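User: Please predict the structure of the protein below. I'd like the answer in C-alpha cell form so I can feed it into my own downstream comparison script.

Assistant: Understood. Taking the following sequence of 426 residues as input:
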Amino acid sequence: MKIKNNTTKTEVLAGVTIFIASIYIIMTNSLILSDAGISQDSAMIATILTCAFSTILMGIISDAPLIIVPGMGINSLFTYTIVNSMNLTWQEALGAVFISGIIFTIIASSKITNILMNSIPNNLKHSITVGVGFMIFFIGLQKSGIVVSNEATLVSLGDISNKETILSIITLFIIMILSLKNIKGSLLISIIVGTVFSFIMGISSFSDISMSFVDFNDFKEVFLAMSFENIFTFPFIVSVFSITIVIIFENMGLLYGQLDALNSTDKFDKSFKTAGISNILAGIIGTSPTIVAAENFSGIASGAKGRITSITAGILFLLSIFLIPILKLIPNGVISAVLIYIGILMIETFFEITNIDKIEIISVIFIIALIPFTYNIVNGISVGFIVYTILKVFTNSYKEVSPAMYVLTGLFIINFILNISMGIIH
C-alpha cells in the first residue's frame, strides 16, 4: 500500500521503531515464564498475541501511539514469587492476573482514576517518569556491558573494548546525532545501521539465522488455562492484591509521562481503561501482567501522534511469529543503545519539576532513586508516597494532603506488610 502523506509515513515508521525497540520482550518474557513451568513456545505465542491484540486495541480505543507488553519485572513477580515462592500453580497465577485485570478495568472505568490523578502532586507524577527513565537507562547500560556487577561496589565500568559494548556506544552516538539533527525515523535508521555494523564487526552472522518456527500446537496449553480452584486462599488473595497494585501504578506512571510528552493527557482515561482490558486478555491468552511499554518513548521521539503507530506495531507483533528468526539478528548492543536513549528522553522530565517544597524534594528523591535501585517501579512510588504523607502529617501540613493520598499511603503500607508476610520482600 502506497503511503499517501508524510504524516502517515511518520506514524508507520514510528510503529516500526517501537516494535523493533521492544522485540526483545518476546524472547525475554518467554524465557522467564518457562521458569514457571510454561513451555517456551507457548509463552512466546501468548506474549506475541497479547502484545498484538492489546496494542491494536490501544490504537482503536484511545487513538494513542502506544504499545502494551508484558512488564519486565512484573513477569519476575509472576514466576519467581507467585509461582516459585508462594507455590501457586502457573494456572492459578494466570487466574490472579485475570482477576487483577478485571479490578483494574473497573477502577479505570470509574471516577476513582480522576480522583487519584488529581490527588497526586504533579512533581511526584513527573518524578515517576524520571525514576522509570533511570531504570531503563540503567538496564541499557547493563545490556551494553558499559556497566557490570562488582562484588565490592555492586556496579562498576565494564570492558569498553568488548565488541558488543563498542557497537552499543557507536549505535548510541548515531541515535543521538541523528536525533539532534531532527532526522525523521532516526531511531529506526540507527537500529538498521547498528545491525549492519554488527555484521561488519563480526558480532552477527547470517549463519545465525534459524528458520525454525514456534510450535502452535503447544499454545492450547496456556490458552484459557486459568485456575480459580484456590481463589479464597490467602496466597491467591495476596497475589491478586500485589499484581493489582503493581499494574495500576506502573501503568498510571508510565501513561502520564508518555501522554504528557505527547501533549495528549486528554487521552489518559481511554488509554488507562485499555491497559486494564489488556491484563484481562493476558490472563485469558496465557501470559504475565501487561503495562504500556517504556519503549513507547522511541516512537514519540520518531514523531508518533496517533493510532496508526499502535496499529502498525500491533500488526508487526502478529507478523513477528514468522519474523522471529530474522529479528533475532538485531544484536543486544543495538537494542541496549535504544534503551539508553529512551532512558535519556524520560529523564528529561526532571526539568519539568517546578515550584517544589522541601517535603516534595525529599519524596521525589526517594521515588527517583528507589525505582532503579530496587528495579521496581511500585517500590519507588510506594516509599515516595509514604514519606510524603508522613512528613506532611508530622510537620503540621496534613491539610495539604488529599484524602486519596492518605488512602494510597495506607494501601502501600498494607502492600508492604502483606509482601513481607508472604516472603515477597525480605
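That's the full C-alpha cell string. The chain has a mean pLDDT of 86.
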